[in-house]
Amino acid sequence: QHVDNKWVSSSSEIIAFRKVLLNPVTANQFQRFVSLKGDLLENGVLFWQEVQKYKDLCHSHCDDATVQKKITAIINCFINSAIPPALQIDIPNEQAKKILEHRKQLGPYIFREAQMTIFALLFKFWPKFCKFRSNLDSDKILLALERKKGKKMRKKEG
After folding, report:
1. pTM score
2. Where are the beta strands (DSSP E) in the chain?
3. DSSP labels, 54-83
4. Residue 90 has what pLDDT?
5. pLDDT per 10-residue tile (average), the chain, 158 residues
6. Is residue 21 within 8 Å of 27, Cβ to Cβ?
7. Are 40 and 86 in contact (CB under 8 A)?
8. What share of the chain is helix, strand, coil (3-state, %, to 5)?
9. Whole-angstrom distance, CA of residue 156 vs CA of residue 4
């Protein structure tokens, strides 16, 4: 719903968006969609999903070594990457530092702030994505996104 040209979200929209991110097919469509909007947004989708898997791992009561490996993998991929830039997701440097400082503390909340930041950032694109996909059959969404990406690449080259 729109109020003074600002998107006001209801809990049902937040839940719907969360379901999209948890569904591999729609998450992939959304990831491709946001990749056209900014360089790190695509990684944000992957980060959010990996943190969900990490939290599931914590709740499954698996051994500490496995949990620590998952923390390290997420950090090496998104927070302190060997591939520049070190920070591969769009979060404040303070949040990244905090995660690095607490990397040895096991538990489901180490990435909580960063995941909430990413969710809020991605959620801004949710209305545009809904509008975009409402005009297409689900099997045509990725094709349409590939076309848009091609046009964007040609603009960069041209």
Report:
1. 0.86
2. 2-3, 6-7
3. HHHHHHTT--HHHHHHHHHHHIIIIIS-SS
4. 95
5. 52 90 94 91 96 93 92 97 93 96 90 95 93 83 83 76
6. yes
7. no
8. 70, 5, 30
9. 35
Query: Which residues are bridge partners to 2 per DSSP?
Result: 7
Domains of the chain: 10-157 (1.10.167.10)
What is the predicted pLDDT for the residue at 1? 45
Question: What letter represents residue 132's amino acid?
Answer: F
Question: At what angle are helices 41-59 and 64-74 packed, to 10 degrees?
Answer: 170
**End-to-end CA distance of the chain, in Å?**
39
Residues in the chain: 158
Which distant-in-sequence residues (6+ apart) come within 8 Å of 62 by Cβ?
A: none
User: Nearest to residue 68, comparing CAs of 81, 57, 79, 78?
Assistant: 57
The predicted structure's pLDDT at residue 38: 85
User: Among residues 102, 74, 98, 99, which one has the least CA distance to residue 88?
Assistant: 74
SS3 label, residue 114: helix
How high is the pLDDT of residue 10? 77
Residue type, 104: K
How many CB atoms lie under 10 A from the CB of residue 127?
A: 15
